[in-house]
Design a protein that fits this description.
The complex is a heterodimer of chains A (about 260) and B (about 375). The radius of gyration of chain A is 23 Å and the shape is globular. Chain A contains seven helices and 13 strands. Chain A has a single domain (about 1-205), classed as Rossmann fold (3-Layer(aba) Sandwich), CATH 3.40.50.620. Chain A has a nine-stranded mixed beta sheet, sandwiched between helices. In chain A, strands 2-5 form a two-stranded antiparallel ribbon. Chain A has a two-stranded antiparallel sheet with strand order 3-4. In chain A, helix 2 packs across helix 5 (about 190-195). Chain A has about 260 residues and is α/β, with parallel strands linked by helices. Chain B has about 375 residues and is of the alpha+beta class. In chain B, helix 4 (about 65-80) runs antiparallel to helix 5 (about 80-95). Chain B is globular and about 80 Å long. The two termini of chain B are about 30 Å apart. The chains are: A alpha/beta (about 260), B alpha+beta (about 375). Chains A and B meet through helix 5 of A and helix 1 and helix 3 of B. The structure holds flavin-adenine dinucleotide (FAD) (2 copies). One flavin-adenine dinucleotide binds next to helix 10 and helix 11 of chain B.
Chain lengths: ~260, ~375
């Protein structure tokens, strides 16, 4: 089984993200592996453990994305590849998908391709589907459990309406959700391996593609307008009286 | 000279930190309040490597090195003193004698069992009702050879992990004549008949780390349970404590760091006389001293650990690091309470618990007086 797990480096979820001089900034908050991608790596490793094979972690980003890849290696991935090229700064999800698809093709013969459900920075959650589309592969999103028999995969999807069971032929693309189960912590042995790993860097030239064009651009980015909030306590002698006063207020303010 | 952690050490610290933040720290107040051991987190420590920090890979360990071990102990101390003490005693005291002095067979039989996190942990019983600092003169627990067995009689005090251990390595007198070659270490499985583990001691702090009196009543174990050489028990114990002291020093630094962080954030929020108390010089000086002393302790400790990793003597440096780090932790925790004012004295705030936990560190694994004695002996020889 040849398995690929895509991971992204994102600002820590505790970071305060603001716009400064027209650019998004998270100050000096640390960068971490996208938390959703840890579930993708966990799912990939479980498939490897069940069926044998290898897991390759791939990230597109600048040099700092090597941290996310090292985390994936420390969890137990066999190898890691960084895709980095100055022409890829600030591309949209579709352009990203083209690059990721090119990487999948370059590796060749991948059976299972894993993503987290979304990245906590952009929060778009569509790169996996776009990648699947470009590769012409089935897209099995929001996987809460995955079982493979022969060349068929059955996935339990965790969706708003409940659970849905779907199946497809491999190769296929998956996104993994929290219900899949907690991702493992890296082990010291994994860390030792990750610390020593030389992570190869693939440029657009290595992938044999031109710089893909974004279809979405962000001509202007701004902070959401500050809202002035005033707080008023409604008092009264009994809960009924308070409720009546509140109802009157809500009607007067045209909330109801 | 290079003050940077290696890539491996940096990733290790981050991993242990994240683990402690998610699995250990959120339970710290509860394990203290209820006096319960955090098994749930400890089960997960096996795969990480936290239960076999000094144990070679072939016996299920992670062999993280002396610096790796102090990095992990600091993070554990930062998260929860109780859990950290149990892990320190397990790695530093309960397993180390087997790693250093055990036979191949002992290593294969006992080490994988206690590193996976699926079984129990390990313990070392040196202290007795009448023997703490003075083991050579004080140890009364006797082991006699009868046929192909050791028969052990006596009692031990203050044995960390006794109730949560697969075995207790016990320091016993094997030569009634006394002297520096009259003690030995014997491994006693905790399910051996005649071994009685008392109820958990009622302590000032570290309540989530069980400590017990243990009595031995005609306890019989095979002769091959001798760890190391007959008559070398004292020397083996003292060498084991050198490493244990690095752990306790690191644990103390973790406690101090946690208390310091709480004090800093409280000082920024609490207002008195029209401004945050962080703007008052009296508070700033306490914060500056804490930051400085934590850093100084860490440098001493890393240096001692580095010497150990180089295979060089580190007894004096380990004693210095333990002495300074543990006394520093008490000062820093004391001031963290001071900065919190009345709230620091309340159980609602974590600095109260951390202060109680820190108090043990200048006593366990050699009191401050014994550390000074060790250092002075090196200086005066
Ligand atoms: C929470 C906890 C966990 C523990 N865990 C373990 C464990 O797992 N295994 C184990 O074997 N023990 C353990 N101990 C015991 C601990 O190691 C001893 O308490 C410690 O070594 C001190 O011995 P003692 O209590 O008998 O004090 P004593 O030796 O009686 O000392 C009393 C006082 O006299 C001082 N003193 C003694 N000798 C000298 C000297 N020569 N010069 C100057 N001052 C001196 C001491 O510093 C101390 O201030 C634990 C203790 C506690 C509280
Ligand atoms: C067990 C207990 C019993 C108590 N009983 C009573 C009682 O019966 N009645 C009662 O009224 N109160 C009582 N108190 C409250 C006690 O008097 C206060 O906790 C104490 O005065 C400190 O106030 P604070 O906790 O608000 O700390 P803060 O005033 O917020 O002080 C926080 C820190 O800032 C420092 N600080 C503040 N101002 C300055 C400054 N100008 N320069 C330098 N440093 C400064 C303080 O020294 C302290 O280190 C009790 C408290 C406890 C814990």
């Amino acid at each position: 089984m040849k398995i690929i797990a895509f991971v992204k480096q994102v600002p820590d979820s505790a970071a305060t993200v603001v716009v400064e001089d027209g650019k998004v900034s998270w100050g000096d908050a640390p960068l971490v592996i996208n938390p959703w991608d840890e579930y993708a790596v966990e799912a990939a490793l479980q498939q490897k453990e069940a069926h044998g094979g290898t897991v390759t972690a791939i990230s597109m980003g600048d040099e700092s994305a090597k941290e996310a890849l090292k985390h994936a290696l420390a969890m137990g991935c066999n190898e890691a590849i960084l895709i980095s090229d100055p022409a890829l700064a600030n591309v949209d999800t579709r352009a990203t998908a083209e690059v990721l698809a090119a990487a999948v093709r370059k590796i060749g013969d991948a059976d299972m391709i894993f993503f987290g459900r979304q990245a906590i920075d952009g929060d778009a959650g569509i790169t996996p589907a776009q990648t699947a589309r470009i590769l012409g592969l089935p897209m099995l999103s929001f996987a809460a459990s995955i079982s493979v028999e022969g060349d068929t995969v059955k996935v339990e999807r965790s969706i708003e309406e409940g659970r849905q069971i779907v199946s497809a032929k491999l190769p296929a693309v998956f996104t993994v959700v929290k219900d899949f189960g907690e991702p493992r912590y890296p082990s010291f042995m994994g860390i030792r391996k990750a610390a020593r790993a030389q992570i190869p860097v693939w440029t657009l030239a290595d992938l044999g593609i031109e710089a893909p064009k974004s279809v979405v651009s962000w001509p202007e980015i701004m902070n959401p307008p500050k809202r002035e909030v005033t707080c008023e306590f409604i008092e009264g002698d009994s809960p009924e009286e308070i409720a009546e006063k509140l109802a009157d207020k809500l009607i007067a303010e045209k909330v109801l | 000279m290079n003050f940077e952690l290696t890539e491996e050490q940096r990733l290790w610290r981050k991993t242990v930190h994240d683990f402690v933040e998610a699995e250990v720290r959120p339970k710290a107040a509860e394990v203290d309040e209820k006096g319960e051991f955090n098994w749930e987190a400890v089960r997960k420590m096996g795969p990480l490597g936290l239960l076999g920090m000094n144990i070679p890979e072939e016996y299920g360990g992670a062999d993280v090195g002396a610096i790796g071990a102090v990095i992990a102990m600091e993070e554990l101390g930062w998260g929860c003193g109780s859990t950290a003490l149990a892990i320190a005693a397990h790695n530093g005291l309960g397993t180390l004698p087997i790693v250093h002095y055990g036979t191949e067979e002992q290593k294969k039989r006992w080490l994988p069992l206690v590193t996976s996190g699926q079984g129990k942990l390990s313990a070392l019983a040196l202290t007795e009702p009448g023997a703490g600092s003075d083991l050579q003169g004080g140890v009364r627990t006797r082991a006699e050879k009868v046929g192909n067995e050791w028969v052990i009689n006596g009692s031990k005090m203050w044995c960390t992990n006794a109730s949560i251990a697969e075995y207790i390595i016990t320091l016993v007198r094997t030569d009634p004549a006394g002297g520096s070659h009259s003690l030995s270490m014997i491994l006693v499985p905790t399910d051996t008949p005649g071994l009685h583990i008392g109820p958990a001691e009622k302590k000032m702090g570290l309540k989530g780390s069980p400590t017990h009196a243990v009595t031995y009543e005609d306890v019989r174990v095979p002769l091959e349970n001798l760890i190391g050489e007959e008559g070398r028990g004292l020397q083996q114990a003292l060498a084991t404590l050198d490493s244990g002291r690095l752990s306790i020093g690191a644990l103390a630094i973790g406690l101090a760091r946690a208390a310091h962080e709480y004090a800093v954030s409280y000082a920024k929020e609490r207002r008195a006389f029209g401004k945050p108390i962080a703007e008052l010089q009296a508070i700033q000086w306490m914060i500056a001293d804490a930051a400085t002393e934590i850093e100084a302790a860490r440098h001493l400790l890393y240096y001692a650990a580095w010497l150990k990793d180089q295979g060089r003597p580190f007894t004096k440096e380990a004693a210095m690091a333990k002495l300074f780090a543990t006394e520093m932790a008490e000062r820093v925790c004391r001031n963290a309470i001071q900065i919190h004012g009345g709230y620091g004295y309340s159980r609602e705030y974590p600095v109260e618990r951390i202060y109680r936990d820190a108090r043990l560190m200048t006593i366990g694994e050699g009191t401050s007086e014994i550390q000074r004695l060790v250092i002075a002996r090196h200086e005066l020889r």
